[in-house]
Amino acid sequence: MSWQQPPGQQPPPTGFYPGQQGPQPGFFPGQSYPSQGGGYPPQGGYPPPGGYVPQGGYPPQAGGYPGGFPPQPGFPGAPGGAPFAQRPEMYGGMHNDAEDPLSGGGGFEFTDKSIRRGFIRKVYSILMLQLLVTFAFISVFVFHTGTKQFAQQNRWVAYVAMGVTFVTMLAIACCGEVRRKAPMNFILLGIFTLAESFLLGVITSFHQGEAVFMAVGITAVVCLALTLFAFQTKVDFTMMGGVLLVAAVILLVFGIVAMFFPGKTITLVYASLGALLFSIYLIYDTQMMMGGNHKYSISPEEYIFAALNLYMDIVNIFIYILTIIGASSKD
């Protein structure tokens, strides 16, 4: 087949369209091209042999595709052999994730879930390392007599550890670029963990070994139960951030008042309220880490901050439970 001249018109010069002053792009003089319906070649001309197939492909005709351009192979699921049927995103089109088996049935659900699972694994791996280091420090301060005596006779080291803990915690919590940039975030978290573990070792050196490890066991059971509850409950605790902040401020004021009225009863009340508050905080921070159907969630880039939050929740629960056990054992 060759180019067809419409009735009543003079044939254009070779390589020219009617009304054009020069050759059209893609139209090569001296070559015949298949026409569709007796009209002119499409704008831009048909591509030469070996070129690409236009978006959507040529419509099939009797005897095959015009000019011998079969559909490109390698695109499964194309009805009728059309090459651009199922994965138009490869060619700049929109991707319908609901039809993509890799997406899990809608949006970027598969990708989001995989990222969130990796984030949770990373957070709990860091948290387990922190707790192991802390447990090792506590064991040394409780069972090694020389270390226990040194901590009890030199209480200034506890204030130094407290200052290092406070500074590093502020650096991680307030400087977003610092806590997201490796290795600085791991260095700060490591310094914070060592200082906090040393501080906890000094605190536990003033208690009996049985009371310390009873508190460790109770804390482990409580934290495990609360974590499982946070993973399966339908109650969204992430909306309680404001209420928890107010409760923390009230607890702080109550603790300051309790310093001026020391006693067994007020100590037990204060420690019980503190353990309850940070138990709720543990659920809150766990759901913030989980994401999913909760209203608020923490970014997957904030794995250091998430691990710090969970670690501080567990440490506070342990301190308040140890305080309850210590106050209960006093005559």
Q: What's a quick, concise take on this entry?
A:
The protein has 331 residues and is an all-alpha fold. The chain has helices spanning 109-143, 145-153, 156-174, 176-180, 184-204, 209-232, 241-260, 264-290, 303-329.
Q: What's the topology here?
A:
Blueprint: H1 109-143, H2 145-153, H3 156-174, H4 176-180, H5 184-204, H6 209-232, H7 241-260, H8 264-290, H9 303-329
Low-confidence stretches: 26-33, 35-39, 74-110
**Helix vs. strand class:** mainly alpha
Question: Into which percent range does the helicity of residues fall?
Answer: 55-70%
- Which H/E pattern describes the elements? HHHHHHHHH
Total of DSSP H or I helical runs spanning 4+ residues: 9
Per DSSP, what share of the residues sits in E-state strands of 2 or more residues?
A: under 5%
Radius of gyration over C-alpha positions, nearest whole angstrom: 36 Å
